[in-house]
């Protein structure tokens, strides 16, 4: 039976790691709250809704991802489709669906904050979250925001933004949303409306599916 790993003073190693992780999380939360308090004192309420969405970098990443799906798609060229059994079709179909879903998220994600709440597109619907139900908005290391069980983004990851000496927009967006959730007087005075929220991701599915399907059809017909 393996013994437990201990530190220099006999303290359990895993417990030390948990304590360090908890301290780091508390420090990050304290830093975020300090930034938000400063922003709340500087932010002036405006009329127009605030919008964050896929920029050039995110769309370029979506194009690269789509190219990878075309070249290394689950229905690889030169395969005999007649030899596929149901498990092959299920596995490859699921992989294709997941790949297209990732592409749509990269190229079409959007966050709209207006007078009444925050709108975030999903697969088939656009969720409009009232300010009272927003909860905590946390910037993640991969550049996405954690808004409850929703993960809009990606923004430029924080470590890369700092390396390139660019604004850390994922932290700025999280701070803006949290300040507006806590201070109703700092929210936009206008509503955006469903058209400004943008469509759900399912609207964009046919285009990448067509791009992937065309070379596969040519490969099958040869």
Gist?
The protein is α+β, with helices and mostly antiparallel strands and 222 residues long.
Give the helix level as a range of percent: 40-55%
Average pLDDT metric: 84
**Proportion in β-strands:** 5-15%
How is the largest sheet built, in terms of strand order?
1-2-3-4
Supply the helix-strand structural class. alpha+beta
> In angstroms, what is the radius of gyration?
22 Å
Summarize the SSE layout with pairings.
Layout: H1 13-42, E1 50-53, H2 56-71, H3 86-108, E2 110-113, E3 117-121, E4 126-130, E5 137-139, E6 145-147, H4 158-163, H5 169-182, H6 194-197, H7 206-221
Antiparallel strand pairs: 1-2, 2-3, 3-4, 5-6
Q: Can you walk through the features of this model?
A:
The protein is α+β, with helices and mostly antiparallel strands and 222 residues long. Helices cover 49% and strands 11% of the residues. The chain contains 7 helices and 6 strands, in the order αβααβββββαααα. The chain has helices at residues 13-42, 56-71, 86-108, 158-163, 169-182, 194-197, 206-221; strands spanning 50-53, 110-113, 117-121, 126-130, 137-139, 145-147. Strands 1-2-3-4 form a 4-stranded antiparallel beta sheet. Strand 5 and strand 6 (145-147) form a beta hairpin. Helix 1 packs across helix 5 and helix 2 packs antiparallel against helix 3. It is globular, with a radius of gyration of 22 Å. The model has no long low-confidence stretch (mean pLDDT 84).
